[in-house]
Amino acid sequence: MNNIVSSSEHKKCSSESDDIFQEAILEEDFAKVKILLKYGGDCIRLDEKNKSGLSALQQSCLKGNLNLVMLLLDAGANMEVKDANGWTALHFAVAADKCCVARFLINSCADFTVMTAAGQLPIDLAKSDGMVLLLANLMEKAGYEQTAKLYREKFGLEQSLNSDDDSLETDAELDEVNSSSNSDEPIYHKIFQKQRHEYFIKKEKL
C-alpha cells in the first residue's frame, strides 16, 4: 500500500484543515482548536491569515481570549507576524483594550517597540489608563524612560516605576531631538527612536 502523500493532496489537506481551524478560532471553540492542534500535524498552518487578513493569534488577541492565546503560543504561533497594516498580535490586544492578553504577550517577550505601517507603537493604540500605564512602565523598565514619561504626560497620568526620579529628561535633550527633524513625527516618537538606538548600542557592548 502506497502511503506517500502527493504535493497536491497535501495542499488540499492543508487548505481544508486551515478552513476548519480558522472557523474554530472565530467561534472561540477552545476544545476544537486544541484537538486540531494536537492531531492536525502539518495540515495546520498556525500563522495562516483568515479572510479578514488576521492570523489565528491576532484574531484571538482582538477577541481577548487569553486561553486561546496561550494555547496558540504554546503550539508555536509567531507573535511578530504582521497584518497588511503592519499590526502584530500586541497591537491588536492593545487596540482592543485587552490588558490581560497584552500583559501575557509582553511577558512572553512580544516586541513592544515595533511600529505599524502608519508609524504607530502599540502604546499609541491604547484606549485606557491601565493599558497606557502597563506599556509605559514596561518601556521605562526597558530603558526608555523619557518616552515612557512623555506618554504618561500625554494621557495625564503620573504613575512611574521611578516616581522619585525627576531627572528622566532634560530640556537640552528635548531640544536636540526636536531640532533633529523637520517632520510632523510626534516628539515622543523621536525620543523613542533616539533612546532605542542608544539602548541597543549599550546591549551590543555587554
Question: Overview of this structure, please?
Answer:
This protein is mainly alpha-helical and 206 residues long. 56% of the residues lie in helices and 0% in strands. The protein has ten helices and no strands. It is elongated and about 50 Å long. It starts with 6 loop residues before the first helix and ends with a helix. The N terminus and C terminus are likely disordered.
Short description, anyone?
The chain is mainly α and 206 residues long.
Keyword list:
0% strand, 206 residues, 10 helices, mainly alpha, elongated
Low-confidence spans: pLDDT under 50, at least 5 residues? Answer: 1-7, 161-183, 199-204
In DSSP terms (H or I, runs of 4 or more residues), the helix count works out at 10
Overall average residue pLDDT: 80
Per DSSP E runs of 2 or more residues, the count of β-strands stands at 0
Class inferred from helices and paired strands: mainly alpha
Principal-axes geometry comes out as elongated
Q: How far do the termini sit from each other?
A: 59 Å
- What fraction strand? under 5%
Radius of gyration: 21 Å
Helix content: 55-70%
What composes the largest sheet?
none
Give me the strand/helix succession: HHHHHHHHHH
